[in-house]
Amino acid sequence: MEDAAHERWLGQMALSVIWSAYAAALAAYGFVRRVAVIRWTALVLFALTIVKAMLVDIAQLQKLYRIIVFAVLGILLLLVAWGYNRAFHTREPVT
Fold it and tell me: What is the DSSP secondary-structure string of 28-59?
């Protein structure tokens, strides 16, 4: 029974990683092509992934691993913020 719960949890974590990777790819595409709708979609997907990670994924983790997860999420958010800052302050106006 414990193995099934662990497998479900691993599946949820894998889904979060896939969502994050897809959101990052969307954001990069949106920056390169200068398409605001795609960038906003990526941000919404990042937000959903973060909420899911906080409510579902870390529920079974020990304190040390929770700290690591929050640190990684913080780094991802910093990278997205850096990308937006770079896109809006180093180039001509983005649509």
Answer: HHHHHHT-HHHHHHHHHHHHHHHHHHHHTGGG
Question: What is the per-residue pLDDT across 36-82, written as a single tens digit (0 to 9) for each?
Answer: 899 899 989 989 988 888 888 777 777 887 788 788 878 877 887 88
Non-local CB neighbours of 52 within 8 Å, separated by 6+ positions: 12, 15, 16, 19
**Long-range contact list for 76-81, CB < 8 A, 24+ apart?**
76/20, 76/24, 76/46, 77/46, 77/50, 80/27, 80/43, 80/46
Q: How confident is the model at residue 92 (pLDDT cuts 50, 70, 90)?
A: low
94 SS3 class: coil
Which residue in this structure is represented by tokens 């649509």? 95
